[in-house]
Amino acid sequence: MTISALRKQLDEKKIGAEELAGEYIDRIKQNDYKYNSFITVCEESAYENAKNAQRLIDSGKSAMLTGIPISVKDNICTCGIRTTAASKMLADFIPPYSAAVIERLGEIGAVITGKTNMDEFAMGAASQTSYFGGVKNPYDTSRIAGGSSGGSAVSVAADMCVASLGSDTGGSVRQPAAFCGVTGLMPTYSTVSRYGLIAFASSLEQIGPIAKSAEDCGYLLSAIAGRDERDTASAVLSDSDYCGKIGTSIKGVRIGIADEFFEGVDGNITKMVMSAAEFYKSCGAEIVSISIPVLEYTVSAYYLISSAEAASNLARYDGIRYGYRSENGGSFESLIKNTRREGFGDEVKRRILLGNYALSEGYRDEYYKRAVKVRRRIREEFSKAFESCDYILTPTSPSAAPKIGVAENDLIKMYSADRCTAAVNLAGLCAVSTPCGYSADGMPVGMSIIGRQFDEAGLIGICDRFERDFTRKEAVL
Amino acid sequence: MKDIKHLFELSKIAYTESELEEMSEKMDDIILLMDKIKEADSLSGIGLEKSDEYARLRKDIPEDNFSDGLMLNVKGTEKKYFSVPKVV
After folding, report:
1. What residues in B contact A315, CB-CB < 8 Å?
2. A376-381 mean pLDDT
3. pLDDT tens string B3-23
4. Which residue of B11, B26, B59 is in closest CB contact with A361?
5. Angle at A40 between CA A226 and CA A197, to 5 degrees
6. DSSP secondary structure letter of residue A417
7. Is A172 a catalytic residue?
8. Is A148 a catalytic residue?
9. Do A376 and A369 form a contact (C-beta atoms < 8 A)?
10. CA–CA separation, A214 and A340 (whole Å)
């Protein structure tokens, strides 16, 4: 069910907030053993949230998300509720504070039903590096859910919540949304406060919504966006009604297609994205050809920058201040080294090593400095492209969800698949992924629409236009 | 292999010989992928110019964070640990 439909039922007292919370908690208990999409189910606190929501509804003070069951990726801190980042390092970490987005959802009476599974520290594109086991795709449980916000995407696709919050550093909201047949939005960098988001790559990551429609993503974004003094990078926004452009005409809107985004992409996926372009054309949009040649360096620039930042951000996990501590102490130095050896998974170690390699003496000019320059060039080329178009249409991923064990065992192929999404993070733009078709074996295929900085409302409007004419196939649960 | 060992030391992560070997193979592939960035020099404005941007950085030598001298100024130490009052 959509947020607006549930809002109506809650406000008209056709269903109570506690009853609704109970229904979704039951669905998690009954179904999640098949998907492993939740690390923690917040049953007790969900009922408390629901009681508070019902009070707001009864006093006529409900907001769009009051009483709506929402899941949250497990790298977003929740006061008093375990927050693990899917790592052994934080397996027992109970934060003494909540992230800014959780505070905002709490103020308006949203109901947090659980913390979703993910790739360890959000490093991955398959949700298979979790200390708590891999996530399975509800369309075919032998396939990956995508990542790193795989649990969030599955929780929405399998109707275990109405919407979810994920985080996106190089495609981690959009790609799992594409693999699981739902909509995922990555807001412009600085739109949403990162306070309380467990840091991976601070210059790239944003918290973003995953839901069954662009409209629902808009409601969630409207609730969490805006300036927060505790994240100095967060922006003062003039308008936070992200559903304001739904229903407006797209006649004359210019949609750019860049060949570079389609290199190495499955032929059927290319056809589906191009047929979406034709749909927009039939609605009065103009399709324009653009070029972003620097895209071929996206993957290396993204991995060098994000890993360099990860190496620094994850230096805090030393077994002294909080988190896992090795039993093999010995000296102070060996305690730290053993803690990090035992507490981090292989992918996290690889990223830390790569980050330190890129920043180390003799290599920093060759790798990190070049990557920073490429990032600047990516911004410039997108900026130039947006002189001749309003939005850019691309595939979200070169393929539909692969089988478990296939993608994550071919690291280079998995890293290379970030080509379609990571450029948006490097350029600081916003983008949304929505289903645009299904593969021959029934797996969802996503397309992405990239917008200018802070044009989330326009992005949601144009995405909604497509969704209204597209028939989604629900996962058979 | 020597480079990977050095990276483990810089990253303050302990390792066994087999872990070192396995990581070495995977890192070789990853670094090969990262080498693509060097081709970006062909784009105008990307090529490396001389810069002293990083001139103030220290040498990359893994250092022990802890010195015995530090402990001489601390009351209530036990081996290499600080003793602090019980709070909770």
Report:
1. 12
2. 96
3. 899 999 999 999 999 999 999
4. B59
5. 30
6. T
7. yes
8. yes
9. no
10. 40
Q: Confirm or reject contact between B14 and chain A (CB < 8 A).
A: yes
Q: Which of A296, A346, A352 sits opposite B11 (nearest CB)?
A: A352
A377 at interface of B, judged by CB pairs closer than 8 A: yes
Give the whole-angstrom CA distance, residue B7 versus residue B15: 11
For the beta carbon of residue B26, count every other beta carbon within 10 angstroms: 17
Q: Do residues A171 and A420 touch, judged by C-beta distance below 8 A?
A: yes
A203, with CB counted inside 10 A (0-12, 13-18, 19+), is middle
pLDDT digits (tens, 9 = 90+) for A455-472: 999 999 999 999 999 999
The pair of three-digit structure tokens given for residue A150, joined into one six-digit string: 């795989």
Check pLDDT > 70 for residue A474: yes
Per DSSP, A138 falls in state T
DSSP state of A125: S
Q: Which two tokens stand for residue A141?
A: 């449980």
Residues 15-54 of B with CB under 8 A from A: 15, 19, 23, 26-27, 29-31, 33-41, 43, 45-46, 48, 51, 53-54
Residues B11, A349: C-beta atoms closer than 8 Å: yes
A373 close to B (CB below 8 A):
yes
Given an 8 Å threshold on Cβ–Cβ distance, is B65 in contact with A333? Answer: yes
pLDDT in tens, A173-217: 999 999 999 999 999 999 999 999 999 999 999 999 999 999 999
Predicted model pTM: 0.93
ipTM of the assembly? 0.92
pLDDT in tens, A3-23: 999 999 999 999 999 999 999
Angstroms from B76 CA to nearest CA on chain A: 17
Disruptive mutation site among B1, B3, B4, B7 for chain A (greatest number of A CBs within 10 Å): B7
Q: A144 pairs with which residues across the strands?
A: A136
pLDDT digits (tens, 9 = 90+) for B24-38: 999 999 999 999 999
pLDDT digits (tens, 9 = 90+) for A244-258: 999 999 999 999 999
pLDDT in tens, A52-100: 999 999 999 999 999 999 999 999 999 999 999 999 999 999 999 999 9
Cα–Cα nearest to A199, from A106, A273, A118, A121: A121
**CA A218, CA A228: separation in Å to the nearest integer?**
19
User: Do residue B34 and residue A411 have CB atoms under 8 angstroms apart?
Assistant: no
Query: CA A252 to CA B87: how far, in whole Å?
Result: 66
Is the CB of A337 inside 8 Å of chain B's CB atoms?
yes
Report whether pLDDT(B44) > 80.
no
- For the record, the structure tokens of A274 come out as 């191009």
Q: What is the pLDDT of residue B61?
A: 80
Residues of B in contact with A332 (CB under 8 A): 65-66, 80-81
Does A202 participate in catalysis according to the annotation?
Answer: no
Q: Which of A130, A148, A193, A213 is catalytic?
A: A148
d(CA A409, CA A213): 32
**Residue B63 in this model has a pLDDT that exceeds 60:** yes
Which stretches of B10-82 are assigned E, i.e. beta strand?
Answer: 77-78, 81-82
